[in-house]
Write a structure and sequence with these properties.
The chain is built from 7 helices and 7 strands; from the N terminus they run βαααββααβαβαββ. The protein is α+β, with helices and mostly antiparallel strands and about 200 residues long.
């Protein structure tokens, strides 16, 4: 039986693998970009570097990490840190960025823009999260438990709200979040945003 546990140092490679295997609208994104490592460099590793105490994982019977939730209680401060400290260390190691095009170029542009303008939703919903589960542990309540634990930690810290942004093509995620009490927020092209008040 899988179990939940807090993130611990050394989990980073496993988190990066889960991120890659779910990054293409919930499916395996291996080979989608010239640099498979970019997904984790944007969407999971900076969070455990900055806020390890807000990260939890689903661990299988054989000790593998099969899912996680990561996030930040303060989106504005996190994005400033990402731009100032994280991305300057990570960006020089990206492969093929000089010839980047398509989805790869879009993600690199997204990374370079982070922390340079006001964050949507951050006033009413200052926290945000990322959650990913491998298919083997989906549909068993682990996503609900991960988010419940994350939300309780936010409440304990007095954070008034949390948001997340999902790809518009990830139909499973779009059906999942409203069942947990998230409400739809105004969203940009190709994405769907959700928020939850914690007051």
């Amino acid at each position: 039986m899988p179990r939940l546990r807090p993130f611990r140092p050394g989990d980073e490679p496993a988190l990066a693998e889960v991120c890659l295997l779910t990054a293409d609208d919930g499916a395996d994104a291996t080979g989608v970009l010239p640099d498979d490592d970019l997904w984790a460099a944007l969407f999971v590793l900076p969070y455990v570097a900055r806020h390890p105490d807000f990260a939890s994982v689903v661990e299988t019977d054989d000790g593998r990490v099969a899912g996680y939730v990561v996030g930040t209680p303060d989106t504005a401060a996190f994005e400033e840190w990402f731009a100032r400290d994280w991305w300057p260390r990570v960006a020089p190691h990206r492969r093929g960025k000089e010839e980047a095009e398509g989805r790869y170029a879009d993600l690199l542009d997204y990374a370079a823009r982070r922390g340079t303008s006001a964050q949507a939703y951050a006033r009413e919903y200052p926290a945000h999260l990322h959650i990913d589960l491998l298919p083997e542990v989906q549909g068993q309540g682990w996503g609900r438990r991960l988010i419940a634990g994350f939300v309780q930690t936010l409440r304990d810290e007095g954070v008034p709200g949390v948001h997340l942004v999902a790809s518009a093509g990830n139909s499973g995620a779009l059906a999942f979040y409203p069942r947990l009490g998230f409400v739809s927020l105004p969203s940009g092209p190709g994405e769907r945003a959700f928020g939850m008040s914690l007051d």
